[in-house]
Design a protein that fits this description.
This protein is an alpha/beta fold and about 230 residues long. The protein has one domain: HAD superfamily/HAD-like (Rossmann fold), CATH 3.40.50.1000. The chain has seven helices and nine strands, in the order E-E-E-E-H-E-H-H-E-H-E-H-E-H-E-H. The protein has helices at about 80-85, 100-105, 110-125, 155-160, 175-185, 195-200, 220-230; strands at about 10-15, 20, 30-35, 50-55, 90-95, 130-135, 170-175, 190, 215. A nine-stranded mixed β-sheet has the order 2-1-3-6-5-4-7-8-9, sandwiched between helices. Strand 7, helix 5 and strand 8 form a beta-alpha-beta unit. Helix 1 packs parallel to helix 7 (about 220-230). It is globular. The chain binds zinc ion. Zinc ion binds near residues 147 and 148.
Length: about 230
């Protein structure tokens, strides 16, 4: 798989195996944190579908910059939703903007501790994700990075890493920037009305493009994805 061209610009981190290539957030590199549970997972070979998930407001309560592991609170139905998607044997990849890192408001260690808390919370209810990609950059800084949603850089990097077919993949998020990143990558997009989602929903009338589905909860979103993916297989 050819992924070396973009590799130097990105950051791969796997908390579970303590493997890091840390690049300074100030260097305008895009960063990837991969909490990998690929061992024993039989991906749908040749299928290429994945589900991208926003983190804050979609999986966990959005409380601004999360610095404390104990502030990591899963939203209702998240365990059931992720377990359902896990059962499809396709990668679940979290894609999250974390400009607090670039601003120096959040340290790498704090960020990883919160991710570890998320990982444990999901593990304790029988769910998991396969990787977490994040953008640490500050918005409106020139030149703009390629990875801050609504730009699709995180999704494109994951597509290379996991050999994905983005046209068969999905993004679920609570903000317009999640939907737009999905559109830009050629994915199907689902708005979930948790977190900031109700506000995003109200503003959809101003948008030139509408999401493929609007869900009240992450479980509803996952059920729609499951139906859609099984229909197209
Ligand atoms: Zn970025």
């Amino acid at each position: 798989m050819q992924k070396q061209e973009l590799k130097p610009e990105y950051f791969l981190e796997r908390p579970g195996v303590d493997q890091k290539n840390v690049l300074s957030p100030s260097s305008q590199t895009c960063q990837i944190s991969s909490n990998v549970a690929k061992q024993g997972t039989a991906y749908c070979i040749g299928c290429g579908a994945a589900v991208f998930l926003d983190r804050d407001g979609t999986i966990n309560e959005d409380r601004g910059y999360l610095r404390e592991p104990k502030a990591m609170k899963l939203l209702p139905t998240v365990c059931e939703a992720l377990a359902l998607l896990n059962g499809l044997n396709i990668p679940l990849i979290i894609v999250t903007n974390q400009s607090a890192l670039g601003r120096g408001l959040l340290s790498e260690a704090e960020f990883e501790a919160v991710n570890a808390a998320l990982w444990r919370a999901l593990q304790s209810c029988g769910a998991r994700y396969d990787a977490l990609y994040y953008c640490p950059h500050i918005p409106d800084k020139a030149p703009p990075c390629a990875c801050r949603k609504p730009r699709p850089g995180l999704l494109l990097q994951a597509a290379m890493d996991f050999s994905l077919d983005l046209s068969r993949s999905y993004i679920i998020g609570d903000k317009q920037s999640d939907l737009d990143a999905g559109y830009a990558a050629g994915c199907r997009a689902i708005l979930v009305r948790t977190g900031f989602g109700e506000t995003t929903y109200q503003a959809l009338v101003q948008q030139p493009r509408q999401p493929n589905y609007v869900a009240a909860t992450l479980l509803e979103a996952a059920q729609w994805v499951a139906r859609d993916i099984l229909a197209v297989r």
